[in-house]
Structure formats: structure tokens, C-alpha cells
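[recover] target loaded
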């Protein structure tokens, strides 16, 4: 549906709200007192190493530049991340667009289990940007905003600032680009998808 432009803004608003609610009311939310700044630094280390694992596709200099863009944001937001209320952490699920089934205005999440324990602890906006980034890559910014508006509706009008929006799109597009390139190496498929996400990342990060 996403790749074939079969969804409209109202579909995305509904999907954003339903996914956000499913994550927020999940019974087994992660519990930790560790601050979000330290958690996310480890996430960026994992992401950098994920990109380094495909040096024939992701040039090290470009990977370092993109990861630096992400670290700059984390440093800019350091105080807020350190002081983020740990009682507001929510579970992270693997809800990229391939794991979402949408039919007759109903969202079902499939194969959404996160393998690594340390990846399961996130702030609420994290969960919506996994699918929102896919929407941005395939259908553009307006449809992405429609999806995120469903998240904002659940959280009673909370808005996401432009720096956070850019950060999370780059972050999740890197995960997807790496995944698609690994698939390409193994099967010969998904190179087109990897190229599309990598171009999106470079544009967002300002890399020529």
C-alpha cells in the first residue's frame, strides 16, 4: 500500500494514532533508571558499527559524517535527555512499514519483536518515527506529517520540533538503508530500496 500510493492522509492519521496507542498501553513497559542520553549514545555506537559492516556501500567518511550529525543533536539535547522522566519510557517495537498490516482502518503489527534488550527502552516519539521515516521516503513530508499527527492526537497536541524530526528521520533511514543493503548482498534484491534510503539520508544530513 505504501509503495503504491494507496493511502491518504486520513489513513495515515488513523495509523499514527492506533500505533501510538498500542505502544503506550502495552502491559510490559521497560523499567530502568538509566538516563536517555547514555542509552542513546549506545544506540548511535550500534548504528555506526552497523554501517561500518558494509564498507563497500557506505563509505566510512560519509558514515562518520552522518553519525556526527546525529551525535551533534544528542549533545545539543543532552540536558533534556539526561533529565528525561524515566517513568515515561515506552517499549520499542520493530514497527517499520513492512511489519504493519492495515485493512479497513485497522492496524495490526506483525513480527515486531525487538531482539536486543537494550533497544527496547525509548521515549514516546521514537516509536512513531520508525514508520514515519518510511512514509517520508516513499510518499513525502506531507504524508509523514499526517502519520505523526496521529501521535500528537494521542498525546493531546504535543508537537515535535524540527531538530528532533530531522534527527529521527536520519536515524531510522540509516537502519533501513543498512538492512536493505544486507538483503542485497545476500539475495541480490533490495538495492533500489537501499539507494533510495541512502539518498534520503544524505539529503537530510547535507552530504553531497
Amino acid at each position: 500500500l505504501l509503495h503504491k500510493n494507496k493511502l491518504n492522509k486520513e489513513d495515515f492519521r488513523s495509523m499514527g494514532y492506533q500505533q501510538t496507542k498500542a505502544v503506550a498501553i502495552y502491559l510490559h513497559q521497560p523499567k530502568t533508571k538509566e538516563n536517555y542520553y547514555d542509552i542513546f549514545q549506545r544506540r548511535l555506537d550500534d548504528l555506526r558499527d552497523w554501517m561500518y559492516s558494509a564498507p563497500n556501500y557506505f563509505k566510512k567518511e560519509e558514515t562518520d559524517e552522518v553519525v556526527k550529525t546525529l551525535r551533534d543533536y544528542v549533545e545539543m539535547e543532552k540536558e533534556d535527555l539526561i533529565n528525561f522522566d524515566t517513568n515515561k519510557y515506552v517499549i520499542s517495537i520493530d514497527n517499520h512499514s513492512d511489519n504493519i498490516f492495515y485493512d479497513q482502518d485497522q492496524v495490526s503489527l506483525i513480527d515486531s519483536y525487538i531482539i536486543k534488550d537494550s533497544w527496547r527502552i525509548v521515549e514516546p516519539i521514537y516509536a512513531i518515527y520508525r514508520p514515519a521515516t518510511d512514509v517520508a521516503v516513499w510518499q513525502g513530508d506531507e504524508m509523514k506529517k499526517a502519520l505523526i499527527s496521529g501521535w500528537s492526537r494521542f498525546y493531546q497536541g504535543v508537537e515535535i520540533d524540527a531538530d528532533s524530526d530531522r534527527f529521527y528521520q536520519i536515524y531510522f533511514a540509516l537502519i533501513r538503508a543498512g538492512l536493505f543493503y544486507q538483503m542485497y548482498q545476500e539475495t541480490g534484491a533490495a538495492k533500489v530500496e537501499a539507494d533510495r534510503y541512502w539518498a534520503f539520508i544524505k539529503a537530510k544530513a547535507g552530504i553531497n
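[recover] notes: The CA atoms of residues 13 and 150 lie 5 Å apart.
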